Amino acid sequence: MTTLKENLQLEKCKIFFKKIMPSLKWILIISISIIIGGIIVFSYINNKSQNSSTQDSSVSDFNSSSDDANCNVQGINIHGSVVTYTSNDSYNDQDKVMYDQTSADSVLYYIDNAQNKDNIKAIVVEVDSGGGSPVAGEEISNAIKNSSKPVVAYIRDVGASAAYWAISGADRIFASKNSNVGSIGVTQSYLSNVGKNQKDGYTYIELTSGKYKDTGSPDKVLTDEEKSLLQRDINIMYNNFVADVAQNRGITVKVVKSFADGSTVLGAKAKSLGMIDEVGGLPEVEKYLETKIGEKPNICW
After folding, report:
1. What is the pLDDT of residues 79-104, one digit of tens each?
2. Is the predicted pLDDT of residue 221 greater than 90, yes or no?
């Protein structure tokens, strides 16, 4: 039997809990929301981290088998547009699409990495690219020429422009009889918006601190002086391209210029011109490598 004092204490407890229950309910809701929010943020950061680890498409072409001690040949892919480097802009986060490109940074890394592995006896470069940055092509070409291990390149569908420049210094170049090879030349062409802008009522307001600062803007008319300036640099890059190919392929500049008109040729014609060494694909590359390194090639891609 409870006393009056105990009953009063019990009533006070009931009144207290009635007062704090709404607050407890909100505290519980807020706590759950914080936990759920934390899970969402963690998942987002984790996904971004995974995405950033695959920003460079050329890096993604090399898998963990590169560390396999049973491999004796390092495989490197040059696919898509050849660029000097890749950044976050190379990844379309909204559509989850990686732009098709290969960076010189990645190719140079794997070439250098192969130099330091005793089990790697040679390097194979697979090419399927229409070109890209002249600087990237030159950088890869120099790295291939300076490799202490023999480098064999083979062209699949296309090995053109900066992509061809990149592999021109390989010890041996293969291509299919149906491969498109060459396109030795430089372009800086662009689409002018001047006529369309005039039709739409837009006027280009020129505000620059240098005479040639906005040269090449698609929204203004290109003057004869500006065109001459751009053509000057295009010609310089073209001559650099031709000279490098001539040196790399062991033929004269005159011979290279005879076919360096920006067009591509098929495999057999490319061989007759001295642009490649053999008509064939990966099986022919592997046969050549076996004679070169004295053992059956096991390529790490």
Report:
1. 999 999 987 555 555 555 557 899 99
2. yes
Same domain, 171 and 213: no
* Token reading at 17: 């809990």
Number of domains making up the chain = 2
Q: Clarify whether residues 121 and 234 are in a common domain.
A: no
Structural domain for 188, as ranges: 184-262
pLDDT-derived band at 62 (thresholds 50, 70, 90) equals very low
Q: Global pTM?
A: 0.76
From 81, 103, 161, 176, active-site residue: 161
Judgement on whether residues 173 and 228 belong to the same structural domain of the protein:
no
Catalytic residue flag (residue 5) = no
**Quick check: is 58 in a domain?**
yes
Catalytic (active site) residue 199: no
Question: Which is the catalytic residue, given 12, 177, 196, 213?
Answer: 213
Residue 13 reports pLDDT greater than 90: no
Looking at the fold, whether 142 and 189 belong to one and the same domain comes out as: no
